[in-house]
Each structure stands twice: as C-alpha cells, then as structure tokens.
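Example for tutorial group B:
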C-alpha cells in the first residue's frame, strides 16, 4: 500500500512548500524507499503552458511534453525521478475530465458535484502507482503538494477531496505536513497567523501531523514559540519544525533531518512494514552521503565564477528557476561559488543609452566583466537586439558563451549579420515577411492554438560525424535495409565497418559531444515553435558555424558550436530541465568549467567523457517518432517537413 504525505500551506503562498515537499521526499529516499510526487495547482488552466513567466515563474517541461508548474522541477531534481504531465493536477484538468464523462452519460443523470472530489482522489491514487525511476516498481511514498493556501476559494474541492482521501487510504497511510509563516516583528516571533491557519484547516476536517514553521530570516525557531504553537495547535512540541532561511536550499533536507522528521514519519506511517531491499538501502545511504558531501563542499567554496545572464524576464528570478539550478549544480561540481549578474537584454540596446543611460552603462559594465555569458530562452522580439549584441561580444572577445532556445536562435542571427554580412537576417517570429528568414516557424505547428502546440518533450539529437549521423543521412528510419531498429537504435559496429563511413570532423573536436560522454546520440527536452531555416544551413556551415547536433533526419539544427573558441555553444533544447544536483547538465557544466578556466574545462571534459550517465530512464531514450506518439504531438496539415507519419487530427 502506497503511503501518502500531503503538504499544505497557510497564511501566504510562496514560502517554500515545494522545497519542503522535495526535501521530505529526498530524506525518505535516503532510507531506501521509492518516492514519487504530485503537485495540485487549483487554477482553472489546463496546464502552465500559456502562463506568463513574470507572474507564475518558469514553465517546466517534462519528458512527455507536459508543461507544468516549476515545483515539479524541484521534485525531479531532489528525488532524481522522471515525472509525467499527470503528476500535475489542475482544476482545469479535473473539471474537463468530469464534464467529458458527464457528457458521455457516465453519471446516469445524477448531479456531478460529488464526482469532482472522487475524480481528484482517483487521479491521485492512479498516478501514485506509476513508476518514476529505473527500478520500474511502484513507489512506496507519494508526496502531494497542495498549491496556494488553506482558505482559498479555488482550493476548496481539493481540500475536501483530501479530507475524504485520508479515510479512503487509512490512518497509517496518510500524513499531513502544514507549512505556515511565523513572522518576526521587532524581534518577536508571532504565532497567531499559524494558530489561525491551523484552526481553519482543522475546521475543514484535516489535522496536521507536523507543522513546518517558515521564518524569513536566518534566525532559529525559539523554544517558547514552538511550545506556544504546540499548545494552541493541538500537536506535541516534537511535531513543530522550524524552517529558517539557510545559505542554500540544498541545506533544507539536512535541517529537517536534524529535527527528526524521518523518525517521526517512520512511526506515524508505520514505514517499517515496507520491505526495503538491501540494494535500495545501500543506494539510499549513498545518496545521503553524497548530498552531505555536496553541501559541505559548497560551504568551502571561496573561488568565484561570475556569470552574466542576459534575459528578458530578469525582474522575476523564478522565470529562470531551472537555469539557476543548473548553474548551481555545475558550480558545485567545479567547487566554485556562483555569482549571477542579471542583465535585462533591452538595457544593452542603443535606445537605452538615451532613455536610461545609468542602466545602459551598468548593463555593459557587467557584460564586459563577465567570466561567462548566458542567453536563455524566451518569446517575443523585445530585448532580442540586446541579446545579439551580447552574443557578438562573447564571440569576438572569446568569452565562454551558452545560448539556450531563443539564445541559440539569436546566435544564428548574430552570425548571419556579422559574419555572413546579411544585415537584415531575421526571425519570422519578429518580422513575418522578412526577406532573409534565418529562423522560421516550424511548419507542422498550429498557428491557431497556443497551449500544448509547440515541439514539446524529450527528443534525440544526433552528433554529426558519428556512425549514427551517417546512418541518419543514408537510411530512412525503419526501412527494409536500415540497420536502425524500431526504436531508432543503430548498430554502430556494422557502420564502423562500412567503407561509406568516415569519422567526420565535428565528432573529433566537439566539446558538446565530450560533455555528453562521447556518445553518438543524446536526449534533451524541447519547448519551441521556431527553428533554424534548413535552407540557410549550407550557407551558415560553409562560413564556419558548425551545427554539431541535428535531429535524426538531419533536418533540424539542435546544437551549434564554434571550433576555434574557448567555449561557444548553443542548444535549441532546454538542457537545464534535466540537471540534477549530483548529476549536472553537461552543457551547463562545460560552460561553468570554461568560465573557471581552460584547465578546469579540460578536467571536466575528461571526466564527462568517461563517467557521464544520462538522467533519463532507459525506456525513454528511443527514436523521435516513438516519442512523438507518446507525447501526442500532432502536426497540422500542410507541413513542409518530410518523414513524419504521425496521424493528423482535423
């Protein structure tokens, strides 16, 4: 029987429920248990795909193409699991499912209000059984995070569903951790907000087993405060945990562990009845040891690496949550203290010099002093000219550069304008009727619907100059005489023995390929509507811009790299989405290492070439055609790209 731990919140939102949920799951995983996680978002949207990053934070993309809340990124990073779109529940998803069933007559004419809470419970129980790691086994623990705060009108159906769910699964299989703010006013820790939210929660039929008190300062929760909360919230003092601000969120699991959360949950949920194999126990101990070593090493980092992030949404840092985490993970690996300087890309543009000269000069001062320059993803034309200026500086001054998605596309435009001399090179995203479209709208993507219509989810990239690249250009996937099997797996040994095969130059010098372990093919997650115009690729490559990674048919450009540059790398996918604290994203690791110096980069290239292991489950690393079917990505009619046999919906 799966054990469930509900994480709810009170007083205010955004105080760290996601980190506490992830930390709790990590601690249980160190005991050898298999852990999954579900995030409940009470908003009416079907998913997070159409939400503004400056309001809701980044949109996190999963292997199956699900566009979900950024907290699922925390779950994947901390728990080292691979989740699906169903691990994110929204009001829109629940209502859509219930209304569709009502339209089919499945409720036999009855009113459907009670069926809403039943649908929520059924969803949770179904998803909690899905394996999320390479074990292929049903999880032992399911962490459920309820977004928002108790008392929100939109969360009422979910709170009621959880009240019913605790009886559905039984007392020994359901525990509740309530996260509440304890404000510090003039040196006094106030308990009244926590008392009020717990009173409201109890009035709704849910009794907290643990109360996690968030303190927005480095100050510890005082014993007198703990005793007062214990007295008025009907819990013992050992059920009150203090979660104060720490130097890094990676210390939060250790903070909770020191207060006995694992011992309490072991007794409360009777975890001793779960059979934990010795192999899993040892794996859990290894995770704990490595996590502690990572946090200790982080505290001893004195050398700094300064990265300038040139973006469009820099006022709200959560817009780049996964990018920040990927940079942190890489800095941990090379034992440097990460310093991020945020530069709003529009402040680099000439008009800013007249409208706001202070911001203009501050932006350029930061850029010219950077150890590395990162241009992340985004949508829309605003600020893109500033991105191009930053990329030109990085290219010409030999500053390590990493471009992601839009940053990759802007690197192509920068090269086209300043190396090829095509001054009006543009993207059709910005100028639809441009005479020189170097970036174009993907022909099979819908122009009428925004949600869930991009190229989404895990996709393979073939490194050029390898056996698999030769196969891709010679054979059609799945043809009668192709040495590529149904899953797109090539017999490289056969090709290496073929006289037609020649080890071309990109495979011999590409830093990107070395970072991915010198493999022929790698997998990363995508989220984009625009791509490099295939008609312009010969012109770009002839001038020295090498696309070292392409899709399986060689039609889509996915990685660009400059050979004669310390580190100049652009990727169409989002490698930050698959970074892990103990297994950093390869492109980010290479970027940070290059920013630390050539010797550090050489060391990491050698280490990665020998020891890198992808974070994806074995069964997910298959051909693009198979992945497209799994993600239900359907091209619209009239697409120009060849080779896709996915059914087209009217």
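The residue assignment follows.
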């Amino acid at each position: 029987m799966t054990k469930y731990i509900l994480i709810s919140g009170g007083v205010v939102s955004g105080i760290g429920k996601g980190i506490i949920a992830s930390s709790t799951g990590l601690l249980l995983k160190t005991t050898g248990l298999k852990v999954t996680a579900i995030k409940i978002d009470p908003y009416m949207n079907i998913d997070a795909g159409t939400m503004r990053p400056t309001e809701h934070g980044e949109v996190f993309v999963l292997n199956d193409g699900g566009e979900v809340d950024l907290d699922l990124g925390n779950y994947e990073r901390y728990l080292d699991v691979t989740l699906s779109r169903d691990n994110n529940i929204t009001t829109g998803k629940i209502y859509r499912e219930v209304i569709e069933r009502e339209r089919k007559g499945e409720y036999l004419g009855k009113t459907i209000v009670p069926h809403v809470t039943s649908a929520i419970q059924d969803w949770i129980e179904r998803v909690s059984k899905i394996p999320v790691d390479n074990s292929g086994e049903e999880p032992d623990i399911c962490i459920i995070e309820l977004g928002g705060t108790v008392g929100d009108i939109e969360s009422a159906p979910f709170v009621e569903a959880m009240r019913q769910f605790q009886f559905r699964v039984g007392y020994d299989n359901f525990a509740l951790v309530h996260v509440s703010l304890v404000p510090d006013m003039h040196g006094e820790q106030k308990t009244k907000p926590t008392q009020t939210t717990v009173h409201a929660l109890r009035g709704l039929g849910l009794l907290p087993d643990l109360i996690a008190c968030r303190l927005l300062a480095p100050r510890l929760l005082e014993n007198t405060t703990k005793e007062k909360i214990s007295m008025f919230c009907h819990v013992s003092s050992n059920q009150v945990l203090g979660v104060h601000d720490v130097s890094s969120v990676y210390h939060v699991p250790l903070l909770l562990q020191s207060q006995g959360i694992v011992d309490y949950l072991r007794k409360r949920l009777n975890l001793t009845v779960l059979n934990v194999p010795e192999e899993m126990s040892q794996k859990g101990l290894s995770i704990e040891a490595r996590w502690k070593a990572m946090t200790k090493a982080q505290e001893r980092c004195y050398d700094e690496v300064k990265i300038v992030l040139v973006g469009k949404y820099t006022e709200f840092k959560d817009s780049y949550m996964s990018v920040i985490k990927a940079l942190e993970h890489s800095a941990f690996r090379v034992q440097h203290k990460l310093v991020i300087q945020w530069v709003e890309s529009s402040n680099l543009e000439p008009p800013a010099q007249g409208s706001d000269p202070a911001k203009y000069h501050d932006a350029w001062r930061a850029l010219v002093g950077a150890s590395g320059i990162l241009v992340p993803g985004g949508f829309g034309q605003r600020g893109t000219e500033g991105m191009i200026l930053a990329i030109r500086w990085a290219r010409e001054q030999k500053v390590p550069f990493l471009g992601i998605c839009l940053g990759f596309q802007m690197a192509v435009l920068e090269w086209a304008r300043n190396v090829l001399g095509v001054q009006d090179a543009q993207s059709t995203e910005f100028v639809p009727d441009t005479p020189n479209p170097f970036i174009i709208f993907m022909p099979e993507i819908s122009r009428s619907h925004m949600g869930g219509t991009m190229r989404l989810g895990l996709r393979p990239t073939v490194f050029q100059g390898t056996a698999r690249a030769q196969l891709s250009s010679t054979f059609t996937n799945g043809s009668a005489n192709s040495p590529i099997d149904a899953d797109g797996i090539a017999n490289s040994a056969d090709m290496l023995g073929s006289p037609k095969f020649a080890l071309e130059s990109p495979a011999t010098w590409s830093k990107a390929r070395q970072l991915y372990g010198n493999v022929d093919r790698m997998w990363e997650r995508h989220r984009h509507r625009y791509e490099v115009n295939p008609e312009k690729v010969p012109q770009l490559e002839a001038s020295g811009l090498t696309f070292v990674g392409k899709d399986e048919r060689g039609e889509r450009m996915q990685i660009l790299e400059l050979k004669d540059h310390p580190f100049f790398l652009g990727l169409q996918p989002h490698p930050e989405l698959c970074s892990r604290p103990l297994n950093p994203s390869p492109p980010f690791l290479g970027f940070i290492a290059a920013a630390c110096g050539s010797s550090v980069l050489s060391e990491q290239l050698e280490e990665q070439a020998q020891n890198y292991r992808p974070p994806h489950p074995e069964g997910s690393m298959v051909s693009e055609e198979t992945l497209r079917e799994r993600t239900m990505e359907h091209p619209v009619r009239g697409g120009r790209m060849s080779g896709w046999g996915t059914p087209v919906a009217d």
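Residues 475-503, 633-650 have pLDDT under 50 and may be disordered. Compare this with the pattern of hydrophobic and polar residues in the output above.
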